[in-house]
Amino acid sequence: MTLSLLDRLVWEEVGASFGFGLGFFTVLVVMNYLFSLAQEIVGEGLAVGTALVLMVYKIPYFIAFCVPFGVLLATVLGIGRLGDHNEVTALRVSGVRLYRIAAPVVAAGALAALGMLVFQEGVVSLSEHQNRVVAADAAAHGPTLRPIENIFFQAPTAQGNALYSARSYDPRSRTLEGVTIVYLAAGQPIEIIQADSAGYTSGVEWAFHQGHTYLFSQGSVVATKFATLDVKVPRSPQEFSLQPLKPVEMDLRELAAEIASLRRQGADPRAYVGAVHAKIATAVSCIIFALIAFPLSLRPHRSGPGTGVGLSVLVLAAYFLVWIPAQTLSQGPLLSPVLAAWLPDLLVGGAGAVLLARAAR
Question: In degrees rounded to 5, what are phi and psi of residue 357?
Fold first, then answer.
């Protein structure tokens, strides 16, 4: 057997089980999501049609989330079958080192990691945005509408950019309360608009009520009081109903833009930098799971689906026993978010390297 045939043999065995592993874990996650949607249908009056649309848009996220788990189970089942049929033993007797047999498995994990990142930044990013839009629209027409507190965003203008803030937004009346707009040029304020409230009219037009404008020019300030003032605000009522994205919900492009913006403002981008590393580390876990699953699969009688699932669950439990405390500690000063992102990969990957070295003796 040539080395190219060895690669083909390993990839065929692992690849044949990847679809099963990915589908198995994806179905488990989808079933859990369906249960939460059923609670919203019964408890909050969510329309069944809307629930189905939300589920469809959420499936790409679940698929990406389960790719590392699929790699883990595929490695356990595929290499387990080779071991049960004594093919690994035959290869080693013929002079092929165990590290060489493991190389195509780790390469398959790297390919899965790259595909996962591309899929996340493309399909998942678009589907998650649509999911949020549908959820916001359902909330805007739902029976229980609640005001949205502490609104803040920024948008570019012809002179520079503008900072928009409001104390709250009432989706029933489509009214902003306690509104402030700061127009900036070269980082300096050139105009400020403050109003008690603002009501939506059409397009990007909002009617500001009972407020003041402040114009800054050559060190002087001109203040003007108004009863009603039409102002362009680059947000629609539907967009105000969208919940602000958390760092973990952003794609890499959004995270990079937010990090750059925070650094320009002199703010701490720590959480967003940690989220970037968390996304990359999650993809790299495909390689880590392939690495640790390979030596664990070499023991006899590992090829059965039941045994493979059980072994995969044990590895996942060990991974999340590190991941959960690390993420909790990263919320405070005890652990860097970057280290928290990579710690499970480092520990589980280190364990896999040790197990592989022992098996290769």
Answer: -65, -40
